[in-house]
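re: that complex we talked abt at group meeting.

here r the seqs, copy pasted straight from the sheet so there may be weird spacing, ignore it
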Amino acid sequence: MPLVDEQLARVLRVDLTNKRYRVERRDDLFSRYLGGTGVAVQLLKENLNPRVDPLSPDNVVVMAVGVLTGVYPAASKLVAMFKSPLTGNLGESHAGGRAALALRMSGFGALVLEGSSETPIYLSVHDGRVEFKDASALWGVRSSLTIGKVLREREPWPGLRSIMRIGRAGERLVRYASVILETYRHFGRLGLGAVWGSKRLKALVIGGRRAVPVADVRGYREIYKQIFEECLRSPSTRKYHELGTAENVMPLNEIGGLPTRNLRSARFEGAELISGERFAKESLARRIACAHCPIACVHIASIREIYPGEKYFYVTRYISYDYEPIYALGSMLGVSEIEGILKLIEQTDILGLDAISSGVALAWATEAFERGVISERETIVRPEWGDWRTYLKMLELIVDQPNDFYGVLAEGTERASERYGCQDCALTFGGNEMPGYHTGPASHIGYLIGLRHSHLDNAGYSLDQRYLGKSYPDPDALVDELVEEESWRQVLTSLVICLFARGVYKPEMISRALKPLGIEIDEEDLRALGREIYREKLDLKIRMGFDPSRLRVPRRIFETPSPQGRIDEGYVMRALDRYRRIAVPPH
Amino acid sequence: MPARRLELVDPDLCVGCMSCMFACSRRFGDSGLNYSAIHVRSVGGVERGFTVIVCRACDDPSCAKVCPTSALRMRRGGGVTLDAKLCIGCGYCVRACPFGAIFWDGVNDKPIICTHCGYCVDFCPYGVLRVM
Ligand code: SF4
Ligand code: SF4
Ligand code: SF4
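got the structure back, here u go
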């Protein structure tokens, strides 16, 4: 089927080494895979040697949107794919904000970044052109927020652009450095920021405004209205607008699934103090939305501080919060003060660090310190549960890397624990620091076998919750269910639908939504497409060296009881066995 | 019956979702944003909230005064209407509107003029807009 919007098939290829760009038409990819994950996997397969060093100029970054972006609500994610410097394997990260819309409005469906600049640069993409601009003066600037402010003034398309940039963590190649956009959204996980840093790409500004033709106007308007209304009405999306994901703190704590103090416990005595309800009452300042999303789940808190040394002089700062950073920089570190959590989140934004990986790394360091595995010679300051002021300094130290220890900690928790010990308490899965759910076997098996090692891959945590108090499936059935869910999610992320709107975008709805765009595909074929993309992605991972038989399972998860009771090691091993048989089918 | 006009209730309620912009653009059948007569942007960073830029339905409109071909004519109830056949695409109106509320249709090279139809109001989930 030819695409009604031809511009979607335009792939912008940017060669950072030679400061050149060209546009390639890939109707084949977009009409077959619809965009996002499906297209990015193929572009990466074509352009990246799977064995390259992720921080070398040979790494390639692909960013892609899908046929629904700028057309229906909540198709608002930009998918980035690259080789991850954190895991040494496939990196896939999704960001909201305006990035997805801006890419499509600028007349492209995907962007491929190749090579590496000799000196710091930033890219400005608009009106079909790419400008390579000197960023030497921006390199080393203390805060990534300043970079955003500076570029806001200099670049065109206010309101219709995305300003993506790295902080000092990316420049200094911290392997879990993020890319920050629009102040509050991120490519957080798996170290895209370090890849940009290694390419000396400080920022990317992209924007535009254009019409996207549809095939059947009446059908389009009708389905648009239905999706729009459901986004607002459905309880599955309302909750994201109300308390936001922070709502999870209390229920997770009640069932005993809230990772606390490096998962030595799954209940936090300070949970109530850092709950979504508390955040809303004490510090919520406003809620905002990603471009073209009526749900508006982004929660922004304010903190007001008195200026040191000046009477009656206050400064108000704004920081966004979510469940994951509250877990990683809150309960996981024993921090029960909202002010502390907000300042830690702010610090990760200023430096350009992934909040989850940072929190888990600090939690490991704190426990290793407590056990005497490392001492002040390594840590310089004295980490202690709940002491957020010290953690603020440690985040700086991870970026500055004044000694060997911080140099290794900047490579991630997995490597730090290999080098210094306390491996059983290093909470990483496939090399990636764990998300905030200790809800039972499915969550952890989910992180291990999920192709991004993320809780959003297959929602193992929600299976745990669904089976709470009921009879738990056997390991084979559980793995099959996880793989099936993850396969379906490939369709969602190829259409770059925000996973918070997954309850609205059911297979039937997607099939109907595609029709006015001239794409006929029924529910069964959509599911089959998901399985195909899953397989393609897994295949790419295997080519990058992913070996499901060598997955390390942190012992800690068997020690701390979950809402399903103590997790049985035998059960997890049997599940992994099953997965190996799926992942590497016998020929 | 007096002519309808679009009004801003309270821009502080705006979450920046751009649903109004997509709605306005959709009136012409396409998706995307090319035809939107309403524009939402942050006030220097999303943390400070948003400003909604749209025609104020002036009784004495600056835009009409500078139009060299009288393509913009005063509308009953305020604001202007565009006679596209007369419009030569000079863009004077864009510069004349003190609110910056005239946008440019890059496909047809014509200004985009709010008709105060109220379609966008139905798609603002947070009560920022209304028609009177
Ligand atoms: S476009 Fe501007 S000047 Fe013209 S009527 Fe509207 S607000 Fe007034
Ligand atoms: S009133 Fe009509 S023309 Fe004016 S901004 Fe709203 S939808 Fe567009
Ligand atoms: S639809 Fe309403 S809340 Fe959304 S951007 Fe427009 S005015 Fe703001």
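couple things i noticed - Chain A has a mean pLDDT of 96. Residues 523-543 of chain A form the longest helix (21 residues).
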